[in-house]
Write a structure and sequence with these properties.
The complex is a heterodimer of chains A (about 350) and B (about 300).
Chain A: E1 11-22, E2 25-37, E3 42-46, H1 53-61, E4 69-78, E5 81-82, H2 88-94, E6 99-102, H3 116-127, H4 132-145, H5 151-154, H6 164-176, E7 182-186, H7 194-211, E8 214-219, H8 222-228, E9 231-236, E10 239-245, H9 246-251, H10 256-263, E11 314-317, E12 320-322
Parallel strand pairs in A: 3-8, 3-9, 6-7, 7-8
Antiparallel strand pairs in A: 1-2, 1-4, 4-5, 9-10, 10-12, 11-12
Chain B: H1 9-17, H2 22-30, H3 34-51, H4 53-56, H5 88-124, H6 126-141, H7 144-158, H8 163-190, H9 194-201, H10 206-242, H11 254-258, H12 264-269, H13 271-299
């Protein structure tokens, strides 16, 4: 456990709100996001499909589709610089160099018409002055670093000649080629089969130790989080519902949603015919409840206040935040239990 | 049985070499198609003959020889002479040069303009897409032949450009719309792939993402489209010249050589005057289309053979 809360923050997100414009109206995909990543820390972001994990990561990278999405409010401070206000040109210098990203689908994340070497070198050429020969050597070195055998052959091969696991290794090689301070891994193992998943996670762990970088690991797999993360952020319907260090989260989850998530992991020693699930579905962007807790409809512990009063994210136990009215602290205004409004 | 692990390294190299790039696969598939290959050879033959015309024949294309009008094919004049005594063989070669130059150059310009506009519209989307595509729609609504005739007349009237280049400019200005639409739709599909996001995520500029990542991936479509356009423009040139509004009559092109056939006498009795350009046009267009079809199949990953 790297428990040093007063460290300098590498990435700090304040009150981030990102939405998509549909029929001329802005629908928020994520609201009220406060989080931070410290240097060399692995932060896991968990949540089910559509909860805004990917929108969060794309917001940080400023890679949202320009045509129909918008960061409506908030700040994303990276080393003190607000990425949301950075001009495109400066953002390009950060992308790939200071913040790198790996994607869910290694099958499509590499350009099919170019060799592996070409794509590795592209990242280098974008950011540093390097000769073609040196770039090639560096590419081979990187491939070796991510555990690809016969790297001198693989640089000349095309993506379709590699397996999914190898491609994800190549993606990691591209991402770490310029020693970024933060690596955003958006579901890096989802598209891979279980044995390869384990290898890739192990590789990420190794690389994180070698390179001393922070990783923001976005996943819906609690197993992956348990294995990798120092700290966990649980998201539901575009909001952070719980944040804690990994041990506390698994041992004493505070938010009913987290509890339900943990509960729905099949246990090997349990003999049941039906798996535990969370009933209902995540409300869509257009149908987000205006007031009250967004999980209220599906929550087994919901009570009267839940659909009327909007909880805020508050510290429930030391270093453990949750957004649930079961805890006095989460009432928007504890003195008179006034109603808050969902954004 | 020898265990698989002990395969000699040379064998492994052999296996590795069997993986080919898209282009190699396409080339191999293309060369299996006889018709397409024959068409390609014929096209190369015609192009070589046309562009080497000055080295093949020493006749002057516009020298009028009233002593030798309407001569039948002979040793001296392989394809005979026309009603002004000009050598038809020479004029067919030079005519090919004009027709093919117009076709090829217009094709290049049209493909270039169309690809740039289509890819920018497709990649950026939003208002840029709207602006570019509405402009494209506008250009596409202009009645092609009417505008070609009018613009061409205006351009030649100004006297700044020769007849051939005027036609090329007019074709290029009016023709890029269809390419832009096709390229845009391809880019729209292609940009959803994560490699586009990945390329941006390592700090590549939008221009670089378009030129280096997207265009090569839609290149096959562009090439196939371009070959079909080539045929269109050669036919368009021939048609316009035939009715006398294309290339001015003093420059021989296949189209305005056919003009001679408008005289009943030539049409009925002096076949040698109009058959050579007619055959050239027909065979060239057929070859281009077979070649284009061959390319299309070669680039289509679903066609294995």
């Amino acid at each position: 456990m790297k428990e040093s809360p007063y460290d300098k923050k590498l990435l700090e997100i304040k009150n981030l709100q990102t939405g998509f414009i549909m029929d001329g109206k802005l629908h928020n995909a994520i609201t009220d996001i406060h989080m931070d990543v410290k240097p060399k820390e692995v932060v896991g972001v968990v949540g089910e499909s559509g909860c805004g994990k990917s929108v969060l990561s794309l917001s940080i990278m400023q890679l949202l589709p320009m045509a129909n999405s918008k960061i409506a409010a908030g700040e994303i401070l990276f080393n003190g610089k607000d990425l949301t206000k950075l001009p495109d040109k400066e953002m390009r210098h950060i992308r790939g160099k200071d913040i790198a990203m790996i994607f869910q689908e290694p099958m499509t994340a590499l350009n099919p018409v170019f060799t592996i070497g070409f794509q590795l070198k592209e990242a280098l050429f974008n950011h540093i002055a390097i000769s073609k020969k040196d770039a090639r050597e560096k590419a081979i070195h990187l491939l070796r670093q991510v555990g690809i055998s016969r790297p001198d052959k693989v640089v000349n091969e095309y993506p379709h000649q590699l397996s999914g696991g190898m491609r994800q290794r190549v993606m990691i090689a591209i991402a770490i080629s310029l020693h970024p301070k933060l690596l955003i891994a958006d579901e890096p193992t989802t598209a891979l089969d279980v044995t390869v998943q384990a290898q890739i996670l192990e590789l990420l762990n190794e690389i994180q130790n070698e390179e001393d970088m922070a990783i923001m690991l976005i996943t819906h797999d609690l197993g992956v989080v348990a294995e990798m993360a120092d700290r966990v952020i649980v998201m539901y319907a575009g909001q952070i519902v719980e944040t804690s260090n990994v041990i506390n989260l698994f041992h004493s989850p505070k938010h009913p949603y987290t509890e339900a998530l943990l509960n729905s992991i099949p246990k090997i020693d349990e003999d049941i015919s039906k798996l535990h699930t969370i009933q209902g579905i995540v409300p869509s962007l257009q149908n987000m409840p205006k007031t009250g807790c967004r999980f209220a409809d599906r929550c087994p512990k919901a009570f009267e206040d839940c659909s009327k009063i909007t909880p805020k994210l508050a510290e429930v136990v030391d270093g453990h935040h949750a957004r649930c009215l079961l805890y006095e602290q989460c009432y928007p205004n504890p003195s008179n239990k006034q109603e808050g409004v969902n954004l | 049985m020898e265990p698989a692990l002990n395969t000699p390294s040379s064998d492994r190299d052999e296996m590795e070499r069997k993986f080919d790039s898209t282009w190699t696969i396409a080339r191999k598939k293309f060369f299996k198609r006889k018709l397409a290959v024959i068409s390609l050879l014929f096209l190369l033959f015609i192009i070589t003959l046309s562009f080497l015309a000055p080295y093949i024949t020493s006749e002057d294309i516009s020298r009028i020889d009233m002593a030798n009008i309407n001569q039948e094919p002979s040793n001296e004049h392989w394809f005979g002479t026309d009603r002004n005594g000009r050598d038809v063989f020479t004029r067919t070669l030079y005519g090919g040069r004009v027709s093919l130059t117009i076709g090829l150059t217009s094709m290049l310009f049209v493909t270039f303009i169309g690809s740039i506009i289509g890819s920018i519209a497709g990649f950026f989307g939003g208002w840029i897409d709207d602006l570019f595509m509405r402009f494209t729609d506008f250009v596409l609504t202009l009645p092609f032949y009417v505008f070609v005739i009018v613009l061409n007349a205006i351009m030649i009237g100004f006297g700044k450009v020769t007849g051939m280049w005027s036609l090329i400019i007019v074709f290029s200005l009016l023709g890029w719309g269809s390419v832009a639409r096709i390229v845009r739709s391809k880019i729209l599909a292609e940009k959803e792939n994560e490699y586009v996001l990945a390329a941006t995520s390592i700090g590549s500029k939008p221009s670089k993402v378009i030129m280096k990542h997207l265009i090569p991936n839609v290149m096959t479509t562009i090439i196939v489209q371009a070959t079909l356009l080539l045929a269109t423009y050669i036919v368009a040139e021939a048609g316009l010249s035939f009715i006398g509004v294309g290339v001015p009559p003093e420059i021989p092109s296949w189209g305005n050589m056919l003009m001679e056939a408008r005289q009943t006498d030539a049409l009925q009795n002096k076949l040698w005057i109009w058959i050579p350009p007619a055959v050239c046009i027909t065979l060239t267009i057929l070859s281009i289309n077979f070649f284009g079809e061959g390319l299309k199949d070669a680039f289509d990953p679903k066609r294995k053979k």
